[in-house]
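User: Some background: our group keeps a shared notebook of sequences we're curious about, and every so often someone picks one and asks for a predicted structure to add to the entry. Today it's my turn. The entry only has the sequence so far, pasted here. Could you supply the structure so I can complete it?
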Amino acid sequence: MIEVVRKGNSRPEMVINMGPQHPSTHGVLRLEVTLDGELVTHVRPHIGYLHRCFEKYAEKMDDYSKVTPYTDRMDYVSAINQEHGYAIAMEKLLSIEVPDRVEHIRVIMAELQRIASHLLAVGTFGLDLGAFTPFLYVFTEREKILDIFEKTSGARLLYNYICVGGLMRDVDEDFKKDTAEFVRTFRPKITELQDLLSYNSIFIKRTANVGILPEKVALNFASSGPVLRGSGVKWDLRKNDPYSIYDRFDFDIPVGKGEVGTLGDCWDRYIVRVHEMEESCKIIEQALESMPDEGDVQQNVPKKIRTKPGEIYSRTESPRGELGYYIISDQSSKPFRLKARTPSFVNLSVLPAISRGSLMSDLVAIIGSIDIVLGEVDR
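Assistant: Of course. Here's the predicted structure to add to the notebook entry:
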């Protein structure tokens, strides 16, 4: 649909649709874009084309434990992180203590998932801008992580592995060796990615000084994750509000620095994800070293979940930012209300503010730099 709008004696503006079926909208997202020539004057996101219905599905289950598979389907490229957040919320509600071995395995799996998610983000971001080769490089590395996940959980995308109180099953005897080998071989690949894409002059011209998100605007929109850290804000729940056993590990919080352009541009959001993969490798190595060799991963998994009346809000740091679960219990075996605060939905709201005045071709880069997953947006 193309619509020409004329306001008084001013030059006509053109309103066009981008999506909902469009490769650069990263899912079924419709953007109503108002253009003055090639300049974007306004962007209005229209959501609801996917509509996962997670929250209502969760409230219709006959047991809290049956909610976990539906968390996978919100952010389906970082399913482990979704499960982890829900399990932590339920364990707070039930006052369940999780064994040390379980905590270590969860952290390792969550950080592997963070790397896999960021690989997909930077690979498709490059693809959006015409760089095909880096996409093949990052997918090769992501497949190695999915191999580990498949050996551990039996699945490659939606895992249903982290359960309330523990894990679906223990890791196999090769888990530590396979994971350590991946980290060892992956580090040089990050350097390759930097040479291939990060400091490529064409890539820099397409991303530097584009989609600038100032710190104040990022905070006002409640942005989180790499979108917020790309604007120079050093905020990561693993450090600032630690959960699980993250307070035991030594790692940094990468932030944007305006290295090749203006602080808070598309390139800064991209490079934060690249550096976060390096930090995840540090966490995985430390967790592998301190992980107990013995322990029953199902010893604290309740046979039937019964809660006291009350409510809980718990938040974790997913690859896209702050993931929160708000649960209201009415003493039955299922949630009376389950609300998910997803980072993709919140981060997408900043799109109109940072797109105004950009070129239509730059809009593709801006969307890719936010790294949305529509299952989280249309939950």
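Suggested note for the entry: The CA atoms of residues 24 and 364 lie 6 Å apart. Residues 54-347 form a domain with the Cytochrome-c3 Hydrogenase; chain B fold (CATH 1.10.645.10).
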